[in-house]
Every structure is written in C-alpha cells, then in structure tokens.
Amino acid sequence: MSDADAVRRRWRHGEEHLYPVVMVRPEVYALCLDCVRAMTERLQAVPDLDALVATYRAADARSDLADAGVDLDGLPPETDPELIRDAAYQVRARELEARAALERTERAIMRARRDGARVVELWPAGRDERLPGFRRVEMNVATGAAVVRGTRMDAETGEPVFTLEAVRLDPETGGATGDAPLADEQSFTTSDTWHAAAERLRTDHLED
C-alpha cells in the first residue's frame, strides 16, 4: 500500500468512526457536522487528490481545524479532532473523485465524437462480469440512449444475478436525466441469456 493509499484509508476510517461515537448525543452530532462542513469548505480550493494528500500531510489536526475556524476549546471531550479532520478530508476526496469521473466521461464522449464513433463506453466498474460491482454503460453519443449491464449477488444462493436496462443519459456529460427508462431493468441467472438480451437492446437503442 502506498503512502497516499494509507492516508486515504485513514480518512475513510475517520468518517466511519466519527458519527457512531457522537450520534448518541444529537447536540454533539450537530456540532461535529458543523466542524466537518467548515473543514470541507476550507478544502474547496484544493484541486485534486494528490494535492489533498499533500495538504493533509502539511499540518496537524488541531492547526488544520483552527485554520478552518473551528473552536477547539468548545469541542466536547468525547469528540476527537483527528476523526473530525479525517472525515472532512474524506468528504472532499469524494467530491474530487466525482469531479474527476465526470471529466473522464466528458473526455471519452468528446473523443468518440472526434473519431466518428457511434457508441462510447462510460462509467466502467469491475473486470469480471460474474462478480458483484461489475457495471458497463454503452451510450449513443448522438441521442444519449444507453444500455446498462451490471452484476449483483443473490443473497440466498450466492450466485451472480445479471441486470440489464436501457436509460436516457445526457449526451454531453453522460449524467442521468431523470427520464423514464427506455427499457425497465431485467434480471438474468445465466450470462448467455444476459448477453443475448443486451445485444437486442443495443440494436433497439444504440443503432442510429
């Protein structure tokens, strides 16, 4: 694990452990939320994840929170400044990850149009289609029509369940539009039937 990965893991740990500790007291929970928001606001100028890790390493928790306007002397004794700071960095990390993913998607759409491609693959996740978390989105760059394939695990059998639907995305950004699905989600227990149904949806919705 790299140093940056270790830092990111610490942020996740901080967020996961901060709120269960303070939720038993609503007033402390609200105070911690305010502190996390203040710290996150201070981090808005940090442009990317590498810079966020560097910023984290450059200061300790108390000075970082103080610079964000947090009254450290006013924090209840059961609150941990380290957890508050780490939770705020995790919030900002998620924001930066979402922005980077959006920028990658927009670049992929621009490349597809430049190259004259009809369909572009967006938001890929996972490598093995039999494992949960696998997801593939193919979008028509002109219309925004998209075929979405995914995999989840059946909680009772432990076997993969393959999902398929067609949706309308924003053809400029690849983002959701809120429109009704072009084809409701279907579930399959075999990959062969899943692939065959996906091919039919591609023909129906991705062909010009």
Could you characterize what this model shows?
The model has no long low-confidence stretch (mean pLDDT 93). Strand 2 (135-140) and strand 3 form a beta hairpin. Helices cover 49% and strands 18% of the residues. It is α+β, with helices and mostly antiparallel strands. It starts with a helix and ends with a helix. The protein folds into 2 domains: 3-102, no CATH class; 118-205, no CATH class. Strands 1-2-3-4-5 form a 5-stranded antiparallel beta sheet. The chain has helices at 3-22, 26-42, 49-57, 61-67, 81-114, 191-205, and strands spanning 119-125, 135-140, 145-153, 160-168, 183-188. The chain is built from 6 helices and 5 strands; from the N terminus they run H-H-H-H-H-E-E-E-E-E-H. The protein is elongated, with a radius of gyration of 22 Å. Helix 1 (3-22) packs across helix 5 (81-114), helix 2 (26-42) packs across helix 5 (81-114) and helix 4 (61-67) packs across helix 5.
